[in-house]
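Quick note —
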Amino acid sequence: MKDQMERLIGQMVDSGVFFLDAVSEFEKRYIRRVLENNRGNQSQSAKALGIHRNTLGRKMEEYKLSSRNGHRPAGAGKTLSAKK
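Predicted structure written out below.
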C-alpha cells in the first residue's frame, strides 16, 4: 500500500496537480467508498470516518455525494436567496 501511494504521489507531483485538488479528490472518493460500504448509512459512515455526522453531511453537500438510496443530506442543493 505504501509503495502504491508513493507512486501515485510521484505521478501527481510530476503532472503538476495542485495540493488542494489532490486532497479534495482523495477526500471525495474516500467518503464515497465508506458510504458504499455502509450502504448509504450516514451515521455508520461518519463513525467509520471518525467525523461527526453533521460534518459528513456538509462534505456530502460540498462534493455533491448522495447516499446509496439517492438521498442527499438535508439542505443539499438549497441556495440562499438574496435579501432585497
